[in-house]
Amino acid sequence: MATIREIAKASGFSIATVSRVLSGSENVTEETRKKILKVIKELDYRRSQSIKGSSFRGIGVLVPDLKADYYGMVAEGIEEVLLRNHFEMFLSTYRHSLEKERDALEEFFARKVDGVIVCTTYQDEDCLEKFIEAGIPVVAVDRENSELKMDIVTIDNYDSSLKIAKYLYDMGHRKVLHVEGLMEVYSARERKQAFMDFAQKKEDFEVTFIPASFDVKDGYIAIKKYLDKYGKNFTAGFFANDWMALGGIKALKEAGFNYPEDVSIVGFDDSPLAKYLYPSLTTIRQPVYEMGLNAAKLLIEKLEGKNESKVKRRVILPTNLIIRDSVRKI
Amino acid sequence: MATIREIAKASGFSIATVSRVLSGSENVTEETRKKILKVIKELDYRRSQSIKGSSFRGIGVLVPDLKADYYGMVAEGIEEVLLRNHFEMFLSTYRHSLEKERDALEEFFARKVDGVIVCTTYQDEDCLEKFIEAGIPVVAVDRENSELKMDIVTIDNYDSSLKIAKYLYDMGHRKVLHVEGLMEVYSARERKQAFMDFAQKKEDFEVTFIPASFDVKDGYIAIKKYLDKYGKNFTAGFFANDWMALGGIKALKEAGFNYPEDVSIVGFDDSPLAKYLYPSLTTIRQPVYEMGLNAAKLLIEKLEGKNESKVKRRVILPTNLIIRDSVRKI
């Protein structure tokens, strides 16, 4: 829609006059009204032509944030595929706010996007259902199984976390802290569950769980508070991501403990940070960029009708335990 | 534009038949042709209505990457303002490739975006000129003065870097390494120039410049190679960003040097990393999120005609030297 200012400029009338026409005021001559309405029609027509002419197709992409590297990499993967297929990426961040998450989805819906990719979102099943019912395909990244008819791209969080538990056990660790990710998030719950199950199977393996979110600050605070209260009564710490591990390492160092000498450390993600810490960080490598690529590919297949089957797909990408220098055999 | 498949589905004819109509083949009855053309018209009308109905307005945003935190934060700032003003953000990354940069801008142009925000781009003046000539406003982030009529949001890179040089000098450092950012990038050139000028003024201040790009890996390689060749004949290192400082610190530690005991370290940006390294990193804080906010505000002012003046605006946001624990007085 043209703005009042644009209409005034194009028609040669004042903003006040245009405003009167738009509000339906009677204080305008019939001739003026006609002229202004004609200009509006032309401006709108030109705009719609230009949009149609560019055969505009857009995909709404919703991520929690772009502050750290994780979702930026997912978005780069998505963009790569969308660009190649001449789709535009509408990117929205919801900053871990349920309200903003729902607003962003409503906005996508109102703008009639051709498809939606949602990453690590929370309580949005009803919003997503609206898209699916309207025939707009949805692909989710990093999400548990759902009743909704949408494809999902994820990693095996449970199995990845189990690899870490086993590795720490094999390296002789029996008393471990797990600084959790946000429990609203599926991947955080899975990572925790694997450690709980492993500890239940192995009688001599004890895990203390510390609630936290995924932020670097939370890793720092979790360890600082724990040390203040209980002292260093553990030999290893597993953090729900690499950034939290960085925060935890800082709290340990401030209290005079080094890694891996005094405490062994394991992260998750293999963010660029992990390799360049010294000592470098043992972690799980997630194929983050590929998760984005695959999500966009599934969506485009659906849009182009290449996926005729009505079966939901769950694509699980492989992870690797990257053993570096932050775990000591004891 | 509807796809052939959509047209086939809506009209009840086969893809082959639709295809024949679209290609102008004579192998179709007049009745079929009419029916299919009617469906195409309806589908296009519905699409144009839906786009017009949502008063769709989009801004193209071009950033080098989303891998690290810097441009993600800029993008979050831009999004905040666009969302509030009911603009959609089309985000493209150009991955530091001149070809992709130009492609992305061409794509924005073809899609008739309402405005463009470009961050830290290279040789694109002719592409940007096209937008400006077409009356599509452009705002640049982190860019030197230009002949083009576009607003620019930036920080004073020269002055910020000079603050670091003076601080290192005051702390007793006389032999300093500067690991440079990519010289194609305006901010990297400014940061280098300040150190060159300072060294020219102070006879007892010597700087060695090491060419590099902005990547963490480059910081590591720059220091590793330097140490291999010349040994540790410097007391401080200034890195063009915090991530490069992380890489440099790793190379120093591998060679048995600690900071700030053996070498003092200064970064740039105040990324989340800086605060959580141990010892924490002295750096320049850039108001990254605010740069995004301000760029989007300038653009929207222009789009809404609030900025009547034809004068280009250059908005320079303040920086701060954040003194932490990585520089030692000698």
UniProtKB/TrEMBL annotation, chains A, B:
GO MF assignments: DNA-binding transcription factor activity; transcription cis-regulatory region binding
Domain HTH lacI-type: 2-56
Alphabetical keyword list: DNA-binding, Transcription, Transcription regulation
SUPFAM superfamilies from the UniProt entry: lambda repressor-like DNA-binding domains, Periplasmic binding protein-like I
Pfam family of the protein (one): Peripla_BP_3
PANTHER family, A to Z: LACI-RELATED TRANSCRIPTIONAL REPRESSOR, XYLOSE OPERON REGULATORY PROTEIN
Descriptive protein name: LacI family transcription regulator
